Amino acid sequence: MAPVTELILAPINPAVSAAEVASILDASTQTLLAQPGALRVRRSHVLEDPSKTRMFVDWESLEHHQAFAANAEIYGPFRAAMGPLVDANAGPRVPPYHVEFVPFPPSELDVHAPGTKADVTELLHAYFPPDISDVERDNVERTVREFAVEIGKFADGFTGEMTLGWTVEDDVKFKGEPCRVLVGVLGWTSVEAHMKVRDHEEFARVIPMLRNLERLKGMEMCHVACVTTERGN
């Protein structure tokens, strides 16, 4: 059983105060970490859109998370407690999904942790058809890693820290279509440093490595700066 990271995206109800949001998230974090197999919870608002919150839950295995979701006595109240937090008018929710990051855990999300150089984390989603083969996935990963090496040659704000992983699910929606997703977490000193890279003359040379990935349907990118709570803390 491989470890997984559960990714959650929650649009925040504007009627809920910041103090209430923090209280609900604190309680939810403690509930999660009380479950067998839950290792740590990271959370951050999306830096480009503070009305959205991202949570990243490390599990010892997908089966551990599934066991939690199947436990109606605990999971039911957990969902109910999270309910007031979510903006019901924000449109269709993105269901939680799971990523098998290698190596695990994805420490690039632990900004300010000892040994971590990053102050923010780029969260990259690259969407592919559900039937993408193992060989094609290997080729995609290799190209993304080569792209990171090239970026590191001229991007002052890139820390060189990166972890990649594919979603367990092959039905993550992108523009209404089911996809298998390559998720990357990359360390940067700041959002501004990352955005400045796009103005560098070398960026135009290397960005086709991503845009021309075999069978790519599209990409999405945002930044987070997570607070991490470990099990037992």
TrEMBL record:
This is Uncharacterized protein. It comes from Hypoxylon rubiginosum.
